[in-house]
Fold these 2 entries.
Entry 1:
Amino acid sequence: MIWDYVLLLSWVCTVYGKEGYFWHISDVHYDPNYSIQGSPDGKCWGTKGSSDVGRVRLNDRMPPAGVYGHYGCDSPWSLVQSAAKAMEAKRADGIEFVLWTGDALSRRESASTTRRLHHLKNITELLSRTFTGQFVFPVLGHEDIGLNLSQVAHLWRNWLPDEALTTLRENGYYTIEQRSKRYQIIALNTNVWLSAESLLESRAPSQRATGSGASLGARVAAVTTGTDPENQWQWFRSVLDKARKKGKTVYIVGHTPPGIDDREAGTGVLTEEHNRRYLQIVRQYADMIRGQFFGHWHSDTFRIVYSDDGEPVSWIMVSPSITPYRQGGPNNPGLRLYKFDNNTGQILDYAQYYLNLAEANSNKQANWRLEYNLREYYNLGEITALSLHDLADRFTQPRENAFVRYYGANRVSLAREVEEIWGCGGALNGLCALRHYCAVTRLEARSYATCVASYAEALASSKASATLGSRPVLLAVFLLSLVAMMPR
Ligand SMILES: *[C@@H]1O[C@H](CO)[C@@H](O)[C@H](O)[C@H]1NC(C)=O
Ligand SMILES: *[C@@H]1O[C@H](CO)[C@@H](O)[C@H](O)[C@H]1NC(C)=O
Ligand SMILES: *[C@@H]1O[C@H](CO)[C@@H](O)[C@H](O)[C@H]1NC(C)=O
Ligand SMILES: *[C@@H]1O[C@H](CO)[C@@H](O)[C@H](O)[C@H]1NC(C)=O
C-alpha cells in the first residue's frame, strides 16, 4: 500500500516537478552606426569632430575598440549576433520562453522613428530565428519610447496572444496566462512610472538640447501625469486579484526596477510615489509572486522587499545588459539562463553567462562563457527572499567574501584595469561598498539615505576610534578592509 503512494508520489513529481529554463536578456542598446574607426570623441561612429559629452571619458588604459564593440559604446550588430548565437549554442532545447526587458535601441541614435522601428525589427527577427520554438516576452524600455505601439505590437505578433497584443498596443503592458501552467507572466510598462527628469538625465546632453530629447521629455511628462498613468495600477491589481482567485503564481517583468541605483550616487528612477505603490503591491501579493525580473541598470544585482514588519518577503533580480556601455562606467556583456519549476514557477537557480569584451576583440572571436551559477557562487540552499536577505547580511561579515563575489559579478567580471577607472575598484572605499549594501536592502530614497548616512558616520568615526562592538562600526571596519581583499 505504502509503495503505491510512493509510486504515485514519484509519478506526480515527474509530471509536475519538471525543470524548465528561460533566458533573460536586457538592454541590448543596438547602435547600427558603431564603427571601429569611430573617433573616441565622436559617438563611436565613423564621423569625426562632433563632441560627445554624454560619453564615458576615455582613458589610456581603456582597451581599444574592436569588432565586438567598445566599453564606451553601445552594441554593434556583431555583438548582438554573438549573443544570439551563444544562447542558441548553450541551450537550444528545454527553453520554455525568453524574457527581454527593453532598451533594445541605443540612446545615441537620434534617428527617425521609422529607422528605429527598423532596428527593433532587426533584433526581433534575430530572436525569432534563434528561438523558433519558443515565445519571447518583451517589455518596453525608455529608449524604446516614441515608437508607434501598434507597429511594435505588429512586430511581436507571433510571440504574444491577441489579448496581450491589444493591451500592448493601447497601454504598453500585457499579461500571459497559460492554462496548462500555474505561473502567469505580468509584463509592465515601467516607462509611465518614471519621473520625466530621470528620463532626460539618462540621455546625452547633446540630445537633450535637440528636439528629440525635449519632445521625449514632453511625451513622458504627458503620459506620466495623473495618479494612474495608462491605468496600469488598476490593471496590475486586477490581474493579481484574478490570478489569486485561480490559485496562480506570477512573474513580474519590467524594464526599470523600483529602488535605488547601486552604481550611481543612489538615485531612484521611478517617481517616489510610483516606487512606493509598487512596493506596497509586492508586499500585499508577495505570497504568490515567484520572481521579479528587471534590467535597466546594466548591473548584475538584486533587491529584497521587506514587509512593514521588516520580514524579507520578496526578491527582485536585475540582469546585466548586453551593451557594455553605461554612463557612470561599463560592464562586460551578460546573458542569464534561469532554471525553474516548469509548473509552479519556483526559481531554482540561474547561470550567468558573459563575454570578456576585451578578450573577444583581441581574439576576434566571441567566446561567451559561464560566469557563475547563483546558488553555488553564493552558497545558497535555495532562492528565497530570506536566503537573499541572509546573503546581503553576509556582505557585512568580515569573514565572508560574499561582498567581494557580489562586486565582481556586479560589473560582470570586468577586468580590474578597466573597472578601476570608474568603480569602487580603483578607490575602493567603504562608502562605495556601503552604497551597494544599502541599495540591495533599502528600496526607498529615504530609508536608503538613512542607511548610507548612519553607516557612513560609523565609517568615519571608526577611523579615529576603536569602539568596536556595534554593528555599524563592524560593518564600517569590514568595508574598509575590503580594499585589501579585492582580487587583482
Ligand atoms: C513544460 O510544460 C510544458 C507543458 O505545460 C511542456 O510542453 C514542456 O515539455 C515542459 N518542459 C519541461 C522541460 O518539462
Ligand atoms: C548611420 O548610418 C546610416 C547608414 O546605415 C546613415 O544613413 C546615417 O546617416 C548614419 N547616421 C549618422 C548620424 O551618422
Ligand atoms: C535590418 O533590417 C533592414 C531592413 O529590414 C535591413 O536592410 C538590414 O540589413 C538589417 N540589418 C541587419 C544588421 O540585419
Ligand atoms: C501607428 O501605426 C498604425 C498602423 O501602422 C497607424 O494606423 C496609426 O495611425 C499610427 N499612429 C500614429 C500616432 O502614428
Note: The domain at 18-394 is CATH 3.60.21.10 (Purple Acid Phosphatase; chain A, domain 2).
Entry 2:
Amino acid sequence: MSREQVYNFAAGPSVLPESALREAQRELLDYRGSGMSVMEMSHRSPAFQEIFDGAKAKLRAALGVPASHEILFLQGGATLQFAAIPMNLMAGGAADYAVTGHFSKRAAAEAEKYGSVRLAFDGSGTRFDRIPSPEELRPGADAAYFHYCANNTVYGTEWSYVPETAAPLVCDMSSNILSKPVDVSRFGLIYAGAQKNMAPAGLTVVILDRSLAGRALPYTPEVMRYDVLLEHDSMLNTPPCWCVWMLSLVLDRLAEQGGVEAMAALRRERAGLLYALLDESDFYTAHARPGSRSESNVTFRTPSPELDALFVKEAAARGLLNLKGHKAAGGLRASLYNAMPLEGAKALAAFMKDFEVKHRV
Ligand SMILES: *Cc1c(COP(=O)(O)O)cnc(C)c1O
C-alpha cells in the first residue's frame, strides 16, 4: 500500500504532515547548500543554532508562551519527566496527582520515590472512563504542585477545563499539545513527548515558569536539572537535532493552516463525526463518558474481542491503519492528531457503518 492509499490512526509515533516530510526529504542530504544533512552538523554550529532558535520562536508564537516561561528541547520522552518533575519541584515534600489514566498513574508511581504523592482524584474504579468535575478534585494543603494529564491517550478522555489550584499546575500534554489554544501562563510546567503531534520520537518539549527552577533535590542528575538545562539553553549535552528540525517544519505547516485555533475546529469536527456514529449505534460502545471524551483519541469497542480483532484486520485491508486499542484498555482506538485530515475520519466512519451492517447479529 502506498502513502496515498492510507490513513494512519496510530497513537504515537503517529502521522506527520506530508509537506513537512517532503521538505525534510528535499533537504535530507544537503541542508540549504551547507553540504551537510541536519543529522550531520554540529549542534554548536551557527546553522544549527538558527534552526534551534527558530523552532523555539515558532513554538512560542504557536502556543503564546509568555516571557515568564522558557522552552526546553530535551530527550528521554515524557516518561523521563515523570521522574524529573518530582526531583526538580517536589523538594522532598508533597504533590497532588490527579490519576485519570495510564500515564498519569505511571507519573504518580514514579513521583512516590521522591516525596509524598497525594491522589487528588483516582479514576481507576471506573476503568478511567471519565474526567473528574472541578468539585471532585481534592487538592491537599501546601502541595509543591498539582499534576494532571490533559489528554489520556490510552483511555480516550480529555480535560475540558484547566483546574484551579493554589499550587503550580504541572501538565502532561503529550497527546493534545498544539491541537487547541491553551493559556500557558496558568501552568507552572507543561511537558510533552513530541511523537504524538509535533515531530518524530526522540524530542521532549518542556515549557516551564523560570521561577520554578533551582529547587532540585541534591542527587538529581545534571542532565535532568531544570536550572542547569536553562543555563545551557537545553544544550548541556547534544539535543535531538533532527527532531528539532522536524518540529520546525511541522510548526511552519501549522502556521500555514491557521494555527491552534484551526486545529481545534478540525479536531472537534473529526472526533464529533465518530462520536455521533458511536452514540447512534447499538453495535459499537464508546469507552469515554460524554463530557469527558477526547478529541485526540477516540476509544470504542464492538460487541466482542473477536469482532474487535476482525475490525482491525478489515480496516487495515481498506488502508485504515493502527486501530487496535492500547493493551491496557483493549478494544479499538482511533488517534486523530493534527496531521489527520477530516477525510480520514470520514473514511473511518464509512468503514464503521459497513462493518456494523456486515457483522450485526
Ligand atoms: C505517549 C505518552 C507518554 C509517554 O511518552 P514517551 O515519550 O514515550 O515517554 C506520556 N504521557 C502521555 C499522555 C502520552 O500520550
Note: Residues 12, 77-79, 103, 149, 153, 172, 174-175, 193, 196 surround pyridoxal-5'-phosphate (CB under 6 Å).
